[in-house]
Amino acid sequence: MTNTTEWQRPGPTRRQLRQDVFLGVGMALAAVIGTDLARSTSGIPVDMGFGGVGAYVLSAAVALPLCLRRRYPLSVLVVVSVLFFVNGEWNTFAFVGNLVTQATQFMAIYAAVAWARDRRRMKLTMVVVFVGMFGWLGWGFVKALNNDSIKGPGGGMLSPYVSFVLLNFALNVLYFFGAYFWGRTAWGVARQRHELEQQAEELATQQQANARRAVIDERLRISRELHDVVAHHISSIGVQAGGARRVMDSDPEAAKNALSVIENSSRTAVNEMRQLLGMLRAADPDLDDDLGVPAGKAPQAGADRLPALVSTANGEGLSVGFHQIGQPVTLPETVSVSVYRIAQEALTNVRRHSTARSAHVTLRYLADTAVEVEVIDDGRPKHAPVGSRLGHVGIRERVSLLGGESEIGPRPVGGFRVRARIPLNPTIPEGEPQA
């Protein structure tokens, strides 16, 4: 939010400047008319000065500076105040009877407070003007007392002179300070409007940034899912195809079994791809996009399918074991899916990028607070080809998104370890996609 001591009100628009010109000219014409009316109703001859037009010129001169009241508010206030004083001293009949002149001074004070950009200069100018005006008022009271010009029938609690002083002082307080506080209110409203517009701009910018972030996060989520789904099954198909080719002539039965595994892996990959693409295409992932009926989907990947995953990963020179520690509990869907995908990616990496002959998957339920999945092997990284390490990045992203911790790297006793611990009540940051 904008600091009130630092905020400067933007300058007036062209439309407002044009309005000020019309106002100043209109007030000047009204002041001339008001002076003529005051002359006609004065009841005594008055000195118009300067060939009979001086009073008219001076009355118009008081109002004309209002043409610049929003462009140069403090200068206009000073000029109007000086002319206001001169008009009151020399053109008394018009000053007392011409309400336009009174309104001009009021509007000059209001504009100075509402539009002055330098608030310290504004306050200093106000002090000078107010002291001058109330000093002039006090001097008028003194002259009236010396001349004994305030007379009346009396009869009240106070003398006519005291009543006159109190009444005029109260009216001037309302006049000058009313203009000041009205201008201050207008300035405060303008500042509040500016702050609201600024907040609206900041919110719009934040919404755009959140939208861009959501798109990026969704792309990352899709990338992780595609990598986890495709890489595992393609890796298995590649291994089985290589084994079938080597034993096709010597052991047709083994080759037939390998081809059967390839067939099952490809079907599973296709089903999972369809499930993922269906979720991306459909507004409701539980409905078929074309038919509007519940779509037949394969069971959702989850921690309960880890034994089946281990069974699929066994074979062709890699022995994979599995055991579970702790009392099983129902896992949140996001945690369950992440546990499965982490183990799946770790086993895929063992096959593709390691010389391991055995691996082991451990699922640990840590009371009611967290679940931990660990995949260890006894191999070393192959010299070629070198992996992209996107799988490790995806694992870390999944675990971090769910507020957990991960450990990926070589084991001190040999082999490689992938370990992830995820709390059972993950706190997913607002705007982040679920794993």
TrEMBL record:
Start and end residues of each Signal transduction histidine kinase subgroup 3 dimerisation and phosphoacceptor domain: 218-283
EC number: 2.7.13.3
Organism: Kribbella ginsengisoli
Domain of life: Bacteria
Domain DUF7134: 14-133
Catalytic activity entry: ATP + protein L-histidine = ADP + protein N-phospho-L-histidine
Protein name: histidine kinase
Record-level Gene Ontology MF annotations: kinase activity
Keywords: ATP-binding, Kinase, Membrane, Nucleotide-binding, Phosphoprotein, Transferase, Transmembrane, Transmembrane helix, Two-component regulatory system
Family matches, as CDD domains: HATPase_UhpB-NarQ-NarX-like
Pfam families: DUF7134 (PF23539), HisKA_3 (PF07730)
Annotated transmembrane regions: 21-38, 50-67, 74-93, 99-117, 124-142, 162-183
InterPro entries given in the database record: DUF7134, HATPase_C_sf, Sensor_HK_TwoCompSys, Sig_transdc_His_kin_sub3_dim/P
